[in-house]
Amino acid sequence: MSDMPASDDASPSAPAATVLPAQLAAFLAARMCHDFISPASAIVSGLDLLEDPSAQDMREDAMALIGASARKLADLLAFSRVAFGASASAETFDPRDLEALARGVFGHMRAELAWTIEPVSVNKPAARTLLNLAQMAGSALPSGGVATVRAVQEAGAIAIAVEAAGPRARLRPEVLRGLQGQALGDGLGGHWVQAYYVHLFLGDAGGRVFADIGEEKVVFAATVPA
To answer: Where are the domains of the chain?
Structure first.
């Protein structure tokens, strides 16, 4: 865990973008709305089918659609509450609870999740880092693969490594820009703002984040004060 990738340094020392707080809030809100609107709309579509007298033969399909979409929406909401929000008054987290949140999101992705966390508890910056980097690793595997999340505590810091390995593994340029603290430029704001948010809260906590891109592999690494 001590051999952190360094080819794409995304630490707080990289040139920072000037993003107004209101702009950042707008990007984060748009990102979460984008995630939530798809399952919410699917639930409404299922309810419309149930109410349609001419579609009663599709009642079973409608109920399945409503059930699956409701689970996805609940999983995303629970995940986002910790990954992006204040998560009530919690300042430390059980890695097993974080794993459950991550697996809930990965249940709606093509990628699989492997989770190995050594500390028995982690602070809020580390918890947010684990969840966000895990989701970003899953998103880097559009054709499937394995996202491996590891963390150890050493020398007063938590070292995190998240590897996305699989066919067509890729890191969007806007994600790398966000991790480096750079402005959006070209690309999708929803992908950029998550990475930029990781850059911000890690910088505030005195941590660092890196990204390394290889052949069919993307590696994220971060250090967070324990």
So the answer is: 8-35+92-225
Tell me the C-alpha distance between 50 and 68, whole Å: 15
- Number of other residues whose CB lies within 10 A of the CB of residue 140: 27
3-state secondary structure of 11: coil
CA within 13 Å, CB half, 124:
13
User: Structure tokens of 35?
Assistant: 């995630």
Q: Check residue 7 and give its pLDDT.
A: 43
CATH architecture of 8-35+92-225: 2-Layer Sandwich (3.30)
Q: Residue 19: what pLDDT? A: 84
Residue pLDDT, tens place only, 145-161: 999 999 999 889 999 99
Token pair for 174: 């806007």
**β-pairing verdict for 208-214 and 112-117:** unpaired
Residues making up the chain, counted from first to last: 226
Question: Contact at 8 Å (CB) between 172 and 191?
Answer: yes
User: How far from the centroid of its chain's Cα atoms is residue 51's Cα?
Assistant: 36
How confident is the model at residue 56, as a pLDDT? 85
Q: How far apart are CA 166 and CA 221, in angstroms?
A: 18
* CA 144/CA 142 separation, integer angstroms: 6
Task: Measure CA 86 to chain center.
Answer: 16
Q: 199-208, pLDDT tens digit by residue? A: 999 999 999 9
Hey, what are 200's tokens? 């911000």
CA atoms lying within 13 Å on the CB side of residue 202:
33
Residue 91, C-beta contacts closer than 8 angstroms, at least 6 positions apart: 123, 124
